[in-house]
Amino acid sequence: MTDNAAPGSRTDDFEGWANLFTRCRAFSHPSELHGGLCGRLAAGARLSEQQWLEVVCEHVGIAPGALTSDDDLPPELPAFMDEAYHQTLDRLRATDMAFQPLLPEDDYAFDQRLQALSAWVRGFLEGMALAAGQRLGEAPDEIRELIEDLVAISQVEEADDGDEASEVQLNDITEYVRLGVISVFTEFNPPEQTPPSAGQTLH
């Protein structure tokens, strides 16, 4: 794992991602990229540093070679994204269920937060489909029902207003998505077997 991701930026902070996207002149959404990563990881895929960086470059809209040749691009982008990859995987694996999707804080406008959630879920569905393929059709009923719900959530981008009832609903949906992602990860990522300690005999 890389320790020097980006000065002053945390890889679990939406602002850090958004600032990098702005500096890359990206038109895509940071939440969608994070969702795509989570979809791949939840479906059991693991990416090398180079593979993940290629996904990042494609999403942001830059050629991988530009990272070393374009002085206008943030030089910390590769290290930041490498750190983000490992941190995301660690949190999906964690037993405390503290994983959170990358979304704007509550001080963002309601519509911006709703659009970010929709973008995150779109990315998650795409990443999961790319990684799982036909295995999705063999998933338990509750996982397939979850996917149907996520498809519906991914298509919601506008709301009448951001009143208190809407805020509660958005928080509830976000929590549903969060727990659903953990369920998918648990389904497609069986616990790793602990290797036998030195001197232990296998029978």
Automatic annotation (TrEMBL):
Q: Which residues cross the membrane?
A: none
The cross-references to Pfam families, in alphabetical order and at most eight, read: UPF0149
| Similarity-based family | Belongs to the UPF0149 family.
PANTHER family assigned: UPF0149 PROTEIN YGFB (PTHR37528:SF1)
- Record-given protein name: YecA family protein
Would you name any one GO CC term? cytosol
InterPro entries given in the database record: YgfB-like, YgfB-like_sf
